[in-house]
Amino acid sequence: MYVGVDVGGTFTDAVLLEKNHVLATAKVPTKGGEELLISILEALDSVLRDVDPARLKRVVFSTTIITNFIASHKYDDVALLLIPGPGLDCNYFNFNAKTHILSGAIDYRGREIITLKEEEIEAVLSELALEGFNKIGVVGKFSPRNTAHEKKVAAIVKGRYPDWHVELGSRIGVQLNFPRRVHTTYLTCATYEPYHKFVDSVRQALVKREICADIYILKADGGTMPLDNSEELPVETIFSGPAASTLGVQALIPPRETAVVVDVGGTTTDLALILSGQPLLSAKGARVENRLTQVRALAVKSVPVGGDSVLKCSGNGIDILPERLGMAYCMGGPVPTPTDALRVLELTRLGDEERAREAMNLLGNVLGMGTEEVAEKVINMVVGKITSEVQNMFLEWEREPAYRVWEILHKHKVRPEMVVGVGGGAAGFISLVAGELGCRSIIPRYASVANAIGAAVAMPTLQINLRADTEQGYYIIQEEGFQGSIKNRRSFNKQNALDLAREWLIKRAQKYGVEVVPAEIEIIRQEAFNMIRGWVTTGKLFDVTIQTPRGIIERIGLGEDTLWLDQ
Fold it and tell me: Is 247 helix (H, G, I), strand (E, B) or coil?
């Protein structure tokens, strides 16, 4: 038996699966803050009623908590202490954060060429303390090659301010793209506390219900990572929700189908693409607030509009704010929302019709418009915003290498003709969105809990990052904190580095009970650099990142479970 739990900003969904059948589903309101534990327990209790927890093989959680925090800009301020070295003007990148440039430099080989100035660091920390900062990101340009400078700055910070939270760029990503590593470090530091609270609630729920199954968190690329490892990199879950809905649709539609996925939630609408049965992977990594990160992700996007988005009159029009203040007005919430507009136009049966009409009248009285007129205006705005974002995503998707290969295989330029709607708000919006795009709209069975299904069917994955230096004669396995010696350093090559990484990945998989076929291991990154001294090659640096394959363990349904509701 497998359990999937998706903790969204509006609802927490759960499913219980066995032999590709859905045995139970649950959808409960997500309570914020310290009450999040209650929501998780209610969801688990609903699907595990009369089920012995010992029968559970795996529980996978996905969440939009981090996505929602970033989309609504609710995270705390973070100060960046950057060590770019000579020749790089950080002002060019405009990191949009409190930033201090520190003296000091590590070269591309990992050698210190400029020492840090402790008095400079002390002065910067005093300034940040006066300004109220207590979250710090420390990033050196070549820190993946030598972490000494980052660690020294962190030690100074902790020595003066033990309660401050510090994140190091070398722990966030091993790639040398400095701007992406800075942005990823910033987001990791900003979201650490809310994610830590989420993980703590998950752990408490599992202990209370005596669940001893393997526990995983869904990552942005559709893979998973053990719960205990996830706190180090909360940003890996930044598109966990969109990944879950994408895998859920993959499991709910027939194989080899091509479709645009539109997941309409209460806080955000998530967009993704499935090509011939496989989710499209972003070649450049997750883009957050229009900046690329080092987070490997599916080609997805979260749009800050959902069924519970706040509606507010502005001049002669209506603004859809990127925030949620609770349930829809028709369900007892404090402000008008798109869900109220759906209820007035009978596009949903959620909530109380009279309260929905009252919500639209609150807007209409200001704008001099009738109830239905306001509702239609709101729906048209939401549909227009989602449609526009889908069209923009098409332009981005078409630049992805996997999409280009797909078009070549079809021998002509083609776009998907199917829009699959999932999530709580899908029923009211998807047919309208599909109509604007000239596509067929589909809402599969279990669409309202597709995210939880996606989490449940996600194939467990593990990753290994290896760095080998033949001149120095050592290699490092980042995930294991291991450093070993290279035998036959003169003949050590790219294939040897890859084989060594595979050996460690297989060992790691055995430790976590993850089955892996060596031939199916994904090569995420494989780079080699020559070391030159006096015009002579003296060694090589190899950087390899590999992962057990992503995918779904099974498709849902036989017989009636494959019925679709065509809008």
Answer: helix
